[in-house]
Amino acid sequence: MRPRxxxxxxxxxxxxxxxxxxxxxxxxxxxxxxVFIGTGGDGHTFPGATRPFGMVQxxxxxxxxxxxxxxxxxxxxxxxxxxxxxxxxxxxSGAGHSDLGDxxxxxxxxxxxxxxxxxxxxxxxxxxxFSHKDEHAEPGYYAVRLxxxxxxxxxxASERVGLHRYRFKPGADANVILDLxxxxxxxxxxxxxxxxxxxxxxxxxxxxxxRGWAPGRQLYFAIRFSRPIVTHQLMxxxxxxxxxxxxAPGRTPAEKILVEGKxxxxxxxxxxxxxxxxxxKVALSPVSEDGALANxxxxxGWDFDLERHRAHxxxxxxxxxxxxxxxxxxxxxxxTSLYHALLAPSLFMDTDGRYRGPDNQVHEARxxxxxxxxxxxxxxxxxxxxxxxxxxxxxxxxxxRSLIESQKASPYGILPVWQFAGQETWxxxxxxxxxxxxxxxxxxxxxxxxxxxxxxxxxxAEYGPYGGLQYYMKLGYVPIDLEPEAASKTVEYAFDDxxxxxxxxxxxxxxxxxxxxxxxxxxxxxxxxxxxxxxxxKSDGTFREPFDPVRSNFGSDYxxxxxxQYSWYMPHDNAGLVNMLGGDAGLIAKxxxxxxxxxxxxxxxxxxxxxxLIGHYAHGNEPSHHVAYLYxxxxxxxxxxxxxxxxxxxxxxxxxxxxxxxxxxxxxSAWLAFTAFGFxxxxxxxxxxxxxxxxxxxxxxxxxxxKRFTVRTEGLSDANPYVGSVTLNGxxxxxxxxGHEEIxxxxxxxxxxxxxxxxxxxxxxxxRPYTQxxx
Length: 775
Known about the structure:
This protein has 775 residues and is an alpha+beta fold. The protein is built from 18 helices and 39 strands. Among the domains are: 12-316, Beta-galactosidase, Chain A, domain 5; 595-775, GH92 mannosidase domain (GH92 mannosidase fold, 2-Layer Sandwich), CATH 3.30.2080.10.
């Protein structure tokens, strides 16, 4: 049987989860995902319904309105809260900045309230209390009982359409509130303009233009109800503007009813449905209301259970890239990490291929699907390399082409820095679309024009007005007296330059390769051998004084970090770092100091994104993510193995607060996924993965080429944290790295774990990972 269509004392979403029926599913990979991991603490993930890389990310919002509390509620939902404001259709997963939360709907019964109210004052608005006991979520599905509103809510989604099912108490009034004022970001003053238009007796369309994180962002939507609207109100509640409301008691007129302004709300009354059920479909479009109406056709009909089943199948297919055999907690962590890694970049185009680009003009994607939401400063490190393994042709080519097309439409002629909804936010530093493209090319991905890509990459690397690049190109570093965050910018630019050189060399463009290999050595210009740290340098060639590596100088010398996090950021030239520190022993001692330091907790207290501290190692933020693997470059993989055990045990749990920091659109999760397999891409575009140690008994990558690469572990336990030996396809593996081609060829990597370190494995210089020497 199917879930019951009428309200029952047993929650309908529990029935939906447990009952067998035409759309029921057996135990699967999706069952191993806990979408609540990261919704507490600083993880900033959301539990709602979406498809892999879907444009609609439909989720409950719990934050308090009318106050700027953007950081804790960056994803709209916090597990610690006990009331829900409503259900909006756009969210970031794990971002350190808040925005979105578009098109908020809330079902209510009884008197209609137009203000959200406050958590501490039940019934003060349309907000409703809820209990986690009455909440259920899985990939593609979310359900909850709203206690104060006395409504059961279920959510699912296709790529462009969110579907709601509301079950009201029999005989109760069924109302739905639409609040366009609301968003995850403080809404006062954010809305530049918005529109609501009633079309017939069951459809509403509209738009919002906002000036939040991405200024001038436009979003269009179409809402269709499963029942005719009995009465409605469309109103502009903008302060200082004469109240204007439109009501049609008893019937809805045939002509279109329109209201515009900066603070729009709508209320929709459906009478007292006999079965207590109202369904709502919401389609989004970056282009127009008509585009949103057309996108509604992506979800024909009103079969909620069928759409939930389709969402489940989409996730099951995406998660099928990995098979894991591990104790239940680690299995949940790994599969949830993979789930989070498949949420962004997100689709941002209509079914006809049209999208809105960084010039805020409408473009058409031909031969690819346009995606946006590129948190590149975070995700180039591990997320995109992971997707290159498991989603190469299906998605990564779309991502690369989206970046290239964005460069063509950019008013500045450069690749995205931190883009969402097609718009540039200029958040963070670097030109990190470059390593995403270079890594894809180096690993053999087809489907994009390499010459066109290289031109886009060099255009970004040579755009002088951006981030002090004019000084970097002239002096070989970014000077702190002319540009903030200069030390971080210099070392990150140098890595990006190296990836350009790698791609150019493979293409046979020696002129470009030579120029950028030379630029890739610029990190040396800000490394101080006397102190052993990367430091900010002034335009006269002297280091800034005074210098204290413990102080972060946030917004000045470094980006979201201190010298203790940034002085090891030359992943393409770790041999050079070893030499700068006086040899293997010098690097080992320095990285030991990073982890073993006794740090005053107030040192980083003023920095929201510095979390997950182990000494000065900050796993909750990206500049530290490769540091534990650096011991391999000094011939001491056993120390990497010990540090990884320390990091995984302290930074990841199968609980709502199970992420030590922002997931940052999947980067924290991708780090865990790679590390659980036993290797990590320290330098994207090197085509090598540095071997650490596995945290699963068996993991199989089901590769898109039809082959399987399996990692198997013998003797895995907390008592055996060290690698005794490694074999690849039955042969001893003496080196502490894997080539990308070795993984793509399929095979088996076997680790034999033991209680004591094997200090000889990976020690020889020939056994160490690739690194660029002085060019």
